[in-house]
Specification:
binds zinc ion, alpha+beta, 3-stranded antiparallel β-sheet, mini-chromosome maintenance (MCM) complex, domain 2, 2 domains, 31% helix, 124 residues
């Protein structure tokens, strides 16, 4: 019977740690962390790092279509909309840069900013 030495265990653990860190870093880079909600030529920035639910009326104070969004695990989706068809709800979650949810009847779109664009201080 061959036993694993202490040195080998340390090497394996170190390798595992490095791969875990790599996987985490890569998955963070793949997904955008800011979404932009467009409505009537106004833009609203949504932080995708914090899980939340919000209504369009939370962003736009005047009379707006009724839409509810959910932010979860770096993605965003429409959970409720009073538009006909509900195509925006059926689109489900978007996670990656440049992915878009469009609600044409309500004139609302949500797009995830790609990481490189975010760096050009797109924040307000
Ligand atoms: Zn819609």
């Amino acid at each position: 019977m061959k036993y694993i030495s202490k040195g080998e265990i340390i090497a394996i653990v170190a390798l595992l740690l490095v791969s875990i860190i790599l996987i985490i870093t890569m998955s963070i880079e793949k997904s955008g962390s800011v979404a932009v909600v467009n409505y009537k030529q106004e833009v609203y920035y949504i932080d995708l790092n914090t899980n939340s639910n919000f209504n369009l009326t939370d962003l736009v104070k005047d009379e707006t279509p009724h839409m509810t969004f959910e932010v979860s695990d770096g993605g965003v989706r429409v959970t409720y909309s009073d538009c006909p068809g509900h195509d925006c709800i059926r689109q489900g979650f978007i996670h990656r840069g440049n992915e878009i949810i469009a609600c044409v009847p309500n004139g609302v779109s949500v797009v995830i900013l790609p990481q490189n664009e975010k760096a050009l201080d797109a924040y307000v």
